[in-house]
Amino acid sequence: MSNQEYINELIENEIATEEEIKLVCNINGTSEETLNDILYARTGYHYWSQWTGEETEDDDLMGFVD
Known about the structure:
Oligomer: single chain
Number of domains: 1
Structural class: mainly alpha
Strand content: under 5%
Number of strands: 0
Mean pLDDT: 87
Number of helices: 5
């Protein structure tokens, strides 16, 4: 997923507003890591696939699955 698609998903799922995302990205840069940080701050999930329930074996190997 591109960063713009990720941003759209965060907004559409009411996880963060466009203004909140712009503020954080202006401070930290627009990257998957920054968007994951927004997701984590609002939901407790570390990355998008965890939020959607689409975790992969690779995610588990990375140590992100609790």
